[in-house]
Design brief:
By secondary structure, the chain is mainly α. It contains eleven helices and six strands. The strands form two sheets. Strands 2-1-3-4 form a four-stranded parallel sheet. It binds thiamine diphosphate and magnesium ion. The site of magnesium ion has 6 residues, from strand 5.
Length: 358
C-alpha cells in the first residue's frame, strides 16, 4: 500500500526502480477505481467517482510537481495524489465510506464526496504549516470549473511573492507553480475561459492539464465543445515568440508515458525558468546607470556581488582617465577569482546533473 511519505526531491531520475514504482502506483490506483466502483454499485459506499483511464498522465505530472507547488484540481486526480505522496489508498477509501475521523480521511473528515482532496494547512496548535516544504493542494469543490479562478489566484499569489522577493512559510521567492486540472466538458464553462484569459493577461506561473476523455458524463465532445477540439480552440491564447503574453500549448496522448514525462518536465522547467529570466532581466537593469548613483551598500553589491558595475562603470572610468590603479588591480583579481569559481561550479554541476529540470 502506498505510504504518505513525500519524496525528498522531484523524481526526475528515470531509474528502473522509479519506473517500476510508477507502474505499481498506476496499477494500485486502477484497482482502487474498479473496487471502489463495485462498492458504490453494490450499495456499500455512497456516490463515488474514480480516476481510471487517467493514471499515466498523472504519474508524469507528479514527477514535475515540486515541494511548495500548489494543485487546484478536480475529482479525477487520485493517481496524482498517490504518486506525489499526498495521499494513501487507506485515506481514499476512508473518504469513500465517509469516515468522520480526520486521521482516517484528512482531506475532509468524511464530509466531502470521494476524490475531493485537500492539504491540511494548519498545525494542531493553529499555526501555519510550512507550505514551501510540502506538496500542497487547495480543497476540491464540486461545481466543475470552480477550481479555475482559484488556480489563477494561487498562481497570482506566487507572482506577487516573487515581486516581494518573499522568503517565508508560504513562498520560496515566488518560485512555485500552480497546477490546474480540469475535464474536457468543464472547459465549456465561462469560468474556464475567464481564468485562461486572466492567467494570460497576468502572466502568472500556472500550468493547466485538461484530461480530455471525449466525454462529460455520457455526453460526447461534439455536443459540448465547438469542433470538439480544445487545443484548436485555445490556439488564440498561444504565445508567439515576440510576445510575452500567452500560453505554450502541448497535446500528448494519455497513454504515452515517455512523452508525457518529457512534456511535463519541459513545461514545468519553462514556467519556472521564466521566473529566472525575469530575475536576470531585473539584475542587468542596474547596469544601465553608473554605480555612483546607488547608495553605499548597493554600490558594493553591484560592484562585487553582482559585478554589473564593473561591466559598465569601470570601462567608462578607464576611458575618461578616472580609474584608480587600486580599483583596476581589484577588478583584475576579482575577475580571476570569479573565473576559478565558475569553472569549479560548472564541473561540480556536471557531476551532479541528472535530468531536464534537475
Ligand atoms: C457546475 C456544475 N455543473 C454540473 C455538474 C455535474 N457534473 C459533475 S461531473 C460532470 C461532467 C464533467 O465532465 P468533464 O469535465 O469532461 O470531466 P470528466 O468527468 O469527464 O473527467 C458534470 C456535468 C457539476 N458538478 N457542476
Ligand atoms: Mg471528460
Amino acid at each position: 500500500m502506498a505510504t504518505r511519505e513525500q519524496p525528498e526531491r522531484t523524481r526526475t531520475d528515470f531509474t528502473r526502480e522509479s519506473i517500476v514504482e510508477d507502474y505499481r502506483v498506476a496499477f494500485r490506483s486502477r484497482q482502487a477505481s474498479l473496487i471502489g466502483r463495485k462498492e458504490v454499485l453494490t450499495g456499500k459506499a455512497k456516490f463515488g467517482i474514480f480516476g481510471d483511464g487517467k493514471e499515466v498522465a498523472q504519474l508524469a505530472m507528479a514527477r514535475a510537481f515540486r515541494k511548495g507547488d500548489w494543485r487546484s484540481g478536480y475529482y479525477r486526480d487520485q493517481t496524482f495524489m498517490l504518486a506525489a505522496g499526498m495521499g494513501t489508498l487507506d485515506e481514499f477509501f476512508a473518504q469513500l465510506y465517509a469516515d468522520p475521523d480526520v486521521t482516517h480521511d484528512p482531506w475532509s473528515g468524511g464530509r466531502s464526496m470521494n476524490a475531493h482532496f485537500a492539504s491540511r494547512l494548519l498545525n494542531p496548535d493553529g499555526s501555519w504549516k510550512d507550505q514551501t516544504d510540502s506538496y500542497n493542494t487547495s480543497a476540491d469543490v464540486s461545481p466543475t470549473g470552480s477550481q479555475m479562478p482559484r488556480l489563477v489566484g494561487l498562481a497570482w499569489a506566487s507572482k506577487l511573492y516573487r515581486e516581494m522577493n518573499a522568503d517565508n512559510q508560504f513562498s520560496n521567492h515566488g518560485d512555485e507553480i500552480a497546477w490546474g486540472t480540469i475535464g474536457n466538458a468543464s472547459c465549456a464553462e465561462g469560468l474556464f475561459w475567464e481564468s485562461i484569459n486572466a492567467g494570460g493577461v497576468l502572466q502568472v506561473p500556472m500550468l493547466v492539464s485538461i484530461w480530455d476523455d471525449g466525454y462529460g458524463i455520457s455526453v460526447s465532445n461534439e455536443f459540448q465543445i465547438t469542433k470538439g477540439n480544445l487545443s484548436e480552440l485555445l490556439k488564440g491564447f498561444q504565445r508567439d515568440p515576440e510576445q510575452k503574453q500567452g500560453f505554450d500549448i502541448y497535446t500528448v496522448k494519455g497513454w504515452d508515458y515517455p512523452s508525457l514525462c518529457e512534456t511535463y518536465l519541459h513545461a514545468a522547467a519553462i514556467v519556472r525558468m521564466e521566473h529566472v529570466l525575469e530575475l536576470f532581466e531585473g539584475v542587468y537593469q542596474t547596469g544601465r546607470w553608473p554605480v555612483g548613483v546607488y547608495p553605499g551598500w548597493m554600490r558594493y553589491g553591484v560592484t562585487f556581488l553582482v559585478p554589473v558595475g564593473f561591466a559598465v562603470t569601470v570601462p567608462a572610468q578607464a576611458a575618461t582617465s578616472r580609474l584608480h590603479g587600486g580599483t583596476f588591480a581589484l577588478a583584475a583579481g576579482f575577475a580571476v577569482l570569479l573565473f576559478a569559481f565558475t569553472r569549479w561550479f560548472w564541473r561540480f554541476g556536471l557531476r551532479r546533473y541528472s535530468g531536464a529540470s534537475a
